[in-house]
Amino acid sequence: MVKRLWRWLPMLATVWLLTVVGEPVVLAAEPSQASPSLVIPVAADGVQRARVTLDSYSYSPTHLIVEAGKPVELTLASVTTITPHNFIIKDPAGSLFVEQAVSAGETVTITFTPIQPGTFPLYCDKRLWPMPSHRDKGMEGTLDVR
After folding, report:
1. Phi-psi region of 61 (alpha: psi -120 to 50; beta: other; left: phi over 0)
2. What is the pLDDT along the chain (146 residues), one digit of tens a residue?
3. Judging by beta carbons within 10 Å of its beta carbon (0-12, 13-18, 19+), is residue 77 exposed, middle or buried?
4. pTM of the model
5. CB 97 within 8 A of CB 91
6. Are 126 and 101 in contact (CB under 8 A)?
7. Among 18, 75, 88, 114, which is most exposed with the fewest C-beta within 10 angstroms?
8. Hey, how many other C-beta atoms are within 10 angstroms of the C-beta on 145?
9. Domain residues of the chain, as ranges?
10. Contact (CB, 8 A) for 105 and 132
11. Which residues touch 56 (CB under 8 Å, ≥6 apart)?
């Protein structure tokens, strides 16, 4: 009996810590609020720049529209105090792959150049076992390359 309790102790301590510190522990998916689409303009230097805010289980904006063949520079700003996130774009065909970890409170700038037009999901796959992933909780969006 005691051995079984010791196996659960790290998880219970983590859940307790997250509850006490103020980050909510949610067992069900939270509805995400839709943010408007953002058409990212091409600057004079040819780069498409935008800021994406990473919050508790959401990106803002959730829908980015860019031009193919032109560099995209995204500033990823996490406004969470404890929860780390990441920013992933994966094309199953392999033409686009972006993966960037963003710690709580951190701001990171990434640059990539989408070559092929298409619609690509963007998401966070972080999770605290045994909870649902951040994507399952609504932390996802879309990149449209035109």
Report:
1. beta
2. 545 544 544 554 444 434 333 433 333 334 445 567 899 999 999 999 999 999 988 999 999 999 999 999 999 999 999 999 999 999 888 889 999 999 999 999 999 999 999 999 999 998 888 888 899 999 999 999 99
3. middle
4. 0.73
5. yes
6. no
7. 75
8. 22
9. 28-145
10. no
11. 23, 24, 80, 83
Any idea which fold 28-145 has? Immunoglobulin-like (2.60.40)
| Residue with token string 């508790």 | 56
- Residue where the block lists tokens 């972006």: 98
Residue type, 67: E
CA distances from 110 to 1, 11, 60, 71, 86 (A): 49, 33, 16, 10, 12
